[in-house]
Design brief:
Layout: H1 2-20, E1 98-107, H2 113-124, E2 132-139, E3 154-158, E4 173-174, H3 195-208, E5 211-219, E6 242-245, E7 250-252, H4 254-265, E8 270-276, H5 283-289, E9 293-298, H6 310-318, H7 326-341, E10 348-353, H8 357-373, H9 378-391, E11 394-395, E12 402-407, H10 408-412, H11 419-431, E13 432-437, E14 446-454, E15 457-458, H12 477-481, H13 495-500
Parallel strand pairs: 1-2, 1-5, 5-8, 8-9
Antiparallel strand pairs: 2-3, 3-4, 6-7, 9-10, 10-13, 11-12, 12-14, 14-15
Length: 504
């Protein structure tokens, strides 16, 4: 009888233990969407290597954007679950706080795979010191590069100096990551075009690699501010955005990147965000990033060759000694970019103070509305149109269809002096910290004007996601706020309404 009593006690204890167990490795404890939705995109083209409605806008009714809460919010139906942070001090994967944690979001699951390997090796040849963490989330593709065992999944690394200085093989430490569901001992394929992947990467870095400053570098293909309405044309660059993932047939729009950063960073702010992509620095994207980071850097045009030289960038940054701040990093990237691409006529680079971008958008909207109000006849319209279409510095891809951007600062230089122009010039001077053009032309930031379907053939309408008052879920903050410039559903008289949709 005593034996039976003891046996019952054992069973009872086991029952209590099983009832109280909490498995933090379960999917429910990770940052994952309850209802995952992918955005469709064309499968990828032929493998060709491509270089890396609300009228009456006045100062009185323009909403202030100094405070984060006063930005318009983009609709995002994804539901995130963030794991609890209990007992993080006892977690062996949590490292000591450092001065910087840099995160490279390397979306190389496309025809840039070989360039990704090369840039990773450049990072491993930088003389990193104890003040910096450098993490790379690397998603590889099939059929473009067979080195390093030809793995094609997604892996997370903490970059280590490669003593052998091998320019082909990865020598860094592969990491486990609970937030991303990654194990260093088994393969896992992540969708780099899913905002949850980016937000989870940021959350992991904040938990395990705390730092005084965080720098995010978005690496890969990029086409500027948007995704395309017609994503199934079969053209690789029909997906207009960043972090293009061919295997998952997905990408992230700029509003989705904003949402991912807000979720992943929580109450913290990025010191800087860099885009090693084409067409990164446009006013639409910069306005989306405002409030999330202090600075933004990249090119408004095409990226030549394989982009940044990471060995030179980090070595130059680290040589700054005690001045290892965000401006010092931007100076390092700018100097390297200028040195590497001074003979490429289309090469350009810009660094922005994101705190000043809301003032640029406000001033530009007022300038645009004033210009629109001055267009009384067809000859007025044609004169302004020619500035955008023929005279000012412009940026576009080498294949069609392509988004066509004009340089904002150069464009306004063709118009007569006015109070609105003066205010806009002042705002731009404060926002643009540094700009460089190999052709010695004005270089500031791109501004979307239209879509070119072919050489000299302009698409007859603007995308719904670039039309104020539309129900498109991808409407950016710029389209919602810059009502003096963007077209409207009511065709109420903005500058693009007057240039494209008004009969004279």
């Amino acid at each position: 009888m005593k034996f039976k009593s003891n046996l019952l006690s054992v069973f009872f204890c086991l029952f209590l233990l099983s009832a109280c167990e909490n498995d933090f490795s379960s999917p429910e404890s990770q940052i994952v969407p309850k209802n995952e939705e992918k955005t469709a995109m064309g499968e990828g083209g032929d493998g060709e290597e491509i270089p890396h409605n609300f009228p009456g806008f006045t100062e009185d009714n323009f909403e202030s954007v100094d405070e984060e809460e006063e930005f318009f919010e983009i609709e995002d139906h994804t539901v995130y679950e963030v794991p609890g942070e209990e007992n993080l001090d006892d977690d062996p994967c949590v490292h000591e706080r450092r001065e910087w944690t840099f995160l490279v979001y390397m979306a190389a699951d496309n025809n840039l795979e070989s360039d990704g390997i090369a840039d990773f090796n450049e990072m491993e040849q930088a003389d990193l010191d104890e003040s910096i963490n450098l993490l790379v989330l690397f998603d590889r593709a099939q059929n473009y590069d067979a080195t390093n065992g030809n793995w094609t999944d997604t892996r997370l690394y903490e970059v280590r100096w490669d003593e052998a200085k091998n320019k082909t093989l990865i020598a860094s430490e592969r990491l486990d990551c609970e937030e991303l569901g990654l194990s260093k001992d088994s393969p896992a394929e992540l969708d780099m075009g899913n905002p949850v992947t980016l937000s989870s990467f940021l959350a992991f870095a904040r938990r395990c690699y705390p730092a005084d400053n965080y720098g995010l570098i978005v690496w890969g293909h990029g086409t500027g501010w948007r995704s395309s309405e017609n994503c199934l044309t079969g053209e690789f660059f029909s997906g207009r955005a960043a972090a293009i993932d061919s295997d998952s047939a997905s990408y992230m729009t700029i509003p989705q990147i904003r949402s991912a950063i807000k979720t992943g960073m929580g109450s913290e702010k990025l010191a800087l965000i860099g885009f090693d992509t084409c067409f990164a620095v446009c006013i639409e994207s910069a306005y989306e990033m405002a409030g999330l980071a202090d600075y933004m850097l990249g090119t408004p045009a095409l990226v030549p060759e394989s982009g940044w030289n990471y060995t030179e960038v980090f070595n130059s940054f680290l040589s700054a000694g005690s001045a290892k701040n965000a401006p010092a990093f931007m100076e390092a990237v700018c100097s390297q970019f200028k040195k590497a691409y001074e003979n490429y006529t289309y090469a350009s680079f810009t660094c922005l103070n994101l705190e000043k971008i809301p003032d640029v958008v406000k001033s530009f909207s007022l300038f645009s509305q004033s210009l629109a109000d001055s267009l009384a006849e067809k000859s007025d319209r044609d004169q302004v149109f020619s500035v955008f279409n023929e005279k000012c510095v412009s940026y576009c891809a080498v294949t069609y269809p392509t988004d066509y951007y004009v340089d904002l600062q150069d464009m306004i230089s063709y118009f007569e002096e006015s109070d609105e122009k003066t205010e806009l010039e002042k705002a731009l001077d404060e926002a643009i910290l540094y700009s460089w053009s190999a052709a010695e032309k004005t270089c500031s930031m791109g501004l979307f004007f239209c879509v070119y379907q072919g050489n000299g053939v302009i698409q007859g309408s603007h995308p719904s996601m670039y039309t104020n008052g539309s129900r498109d879920t991808h409407l950016s903050r710029f389209v919602k706020d810059c009502t003096g410039y963007v077209p409207s559903m009511s065709k109420s008289g903005s500058l693009l309404d007057k240039l494209f949709y008004t009969a004279y």
